[in-house]
């Protein structure tokens, strides 16, 4: 077990470091002179020189990379060029919108998908199964930002029940804040729910034939009770794995959905930073999001090994 | 016609997903081709006098805020989606399949290196790659092709590697090795032909995902740029006109959803056809 952990941890750290190198190369080394990209072609020479000095561009790239890495670890990311405040502060503030949005999306998708998947498996090849499978097919095909626009059309434009966009802020109270996150969370959850429904269905079908379910029935549990109490727990392993693998899509979805609803989260920050050519903010947010994907996949890997000891030896080669 | 062919076509006809999905996919590709030579109106022609007109005889699906014909824009948007998806999936196939096959054939450090590289690539969803490329060279359709293509590389590399590893352990490969054939020859003659079905099915699925991703990128403004019509761009324009012309927000989304649905059904049907063992066991009626 210790060896497995060390191997996974080493692979995780190497992947993390490699992701940081990629981001640094693309945004700091490839452009040649990031300062002239940020200021545009008409910038004055003295302004350019000042920004170059501020960014430390007179130093060799490897030294800048090591400084940046140190800053990432210690939380000191320097100042945003356009906002004039520390990037770390900016990111922390925006995360209070993005993290609840992403977690909410994940939670709602699981709440929709797990019951639907279990019902579809239990009712295999009957009407309920067919209906659920049609729902999943359709929901996978619908782009989440279009679904979001349709929600706005229905609940904001036609019914006037919910705000069409913007964020009330947590200081306005939990009610209004959650109100502005409700449609975004649902829009984010739909495609995820569709994929998870299919995974749950096939995972439950896999365990339906297992001996321990027969044993549970023999001990007097009803079919439903055996399924929910013993079947679901075992079926959840692949479901959790897919949730982890889907995380990068959830993240991309969060960036788009924040822009549909004008939510001041990390995705919106990234979008605005691109428009303002604030490469420092772009670099730091991109590395943070890529790091989050690597971390989640590492945790899923670990969880997998913990839940199913058989995988520890094989997983070392995967 | 051989018996195997007759059996295959008979199974294909009985496969509802394949028939419906195939019909939608064929219609989508036909529209893309048609748009090269004909659309009801030039898709970029503005006609301010008839702006925001509803459904009617002159403009079947109405016009947008610049008076452009919505039907023509939708048809021209098909071409854009196909172009981006074909190149993006092509990048994934041309780089991913050889890399995966190489990793499986060589094992050892080559394999380990490939898998670590694919881990790093996985950390960058198409959207993050697109953001970085936009910061570097600005937005555009080429940007989407590269960004989505990069994300497709590890998808095909891992799929190929995993399946190739299984084939490398089979007896007929062992026989070929005993006969003195090299890694490249075995990969070409025995491994890849056995993977073709799997790769084609995955390519169909990635094609659908690429269309979704392209729409998302153009919606955000990182992808296809105006005046070139694209479905994602049409949706972001429509969002500002929700109160005046809600139909503009419905039609492009419907086009994306129907196309993606068709491709997914086609992929599912193809998988059932090529691998009857999988059948409907895991995937519902």
Summarize the structure.
Chain A has helices spanning 2-29, 34-39, 45-55, 61-74, 87-122, 127-141, 144-158, 174-208, 211-218, 223-245, 247-260, 266-275, 279-307, 311-315. Chain A is an all-alpha fold and 318 residues long.
Task: Please characterize this protein's 3D structure.
The complex is a heterodimer of chains A (318) and B (285). Chain A has 318 residues and is mainly α. In chain A, 78% of the residues lie in helices and 0% in strands. Chain A contains 14 helices and no strands. Chain A has helices at residues 2-29, 34-39, 45-55, 61-74, 87-122, 127-141, 144-158, 174-208, 211-218, 223-245, 247-260, 266-275, 279-307, 311-315. In chain A, helix 5 (87-122) crosses helix 11 (247-260), helix 7 crosses helix 8 (174-208) and helix 9 runs antiparallel to helix 10 (223-245). Chain A is globular, with a radius of gyration of 24 Å. Mean pLDDT of chain A is 87; it is low at 314-318. Chain B starts with a helix and ends in an 11-residue tail after the last helix. Chain B is mainly alpha-helical and 285 residues long. The longest helix of chain B has 38 residues, at 183-220. Chain B has one domain (2-274): MetI-like fold. Chain B has helices spanning 3-13, 16-37, 70-106, 108-122, 126-137, 141-168, 171-178, 183-220, 231-239, 247-274. Chain B has 10 helices and no strands. In chain B, helix 3 (70-106) runs parallel beside helix 6 and helix 5 crosses helix 6 (141-168). The chains are: A mainly alpha (318), B mainly alpha (285). Chains A and B meet through helix 1, helix 6, helix 7, helix 8 and helix 11 of A and helix 4, helix 5, helix 8, helix 9 and helix 10 of B.
Give the helix proportion of chain A (percent range).
over 70%
Assign a percent range to the helix content of chain B. Answer: over 70%
Order of helices and strands of chain A: HHHHHHHHHHHHHH
CATH fold category name of chain B: MetI-like fold
Question: Can you summarize the main beta sheet of chain A?
Answer: none
Query: Per the principal axes of the C-alpha atoms, what is the gross shape of chain B?
Result: globular
Largest interface: A-B, 60 and 46 residues
Order of helices and strands of chain B: HHHHHHHHHH
Low-confidence stretches of chain A: 314-318
Q: Tell me what portion of residues of chain A adopts beta-strand conformation.
A: under 5%
Return Rg of chain A in Å: 24 Å
The gross shape of chain A turns out to be: globular
In quaternary terms, these chains amount to heterodimer
* Mean pLDDT rating of chain A: 87
Q: What is the top-level CATH class of chain B?
A: Mainly Alpha
Helical stretch tally of chain B: 10
CATH homologous superfamily heading of chain B: MetI-like
| Main sheet attributes: strand count, strand direction, barrel closure of chain B | none
Total domains of chain B: 1
The radius of gyration of chain B is: 22 Å
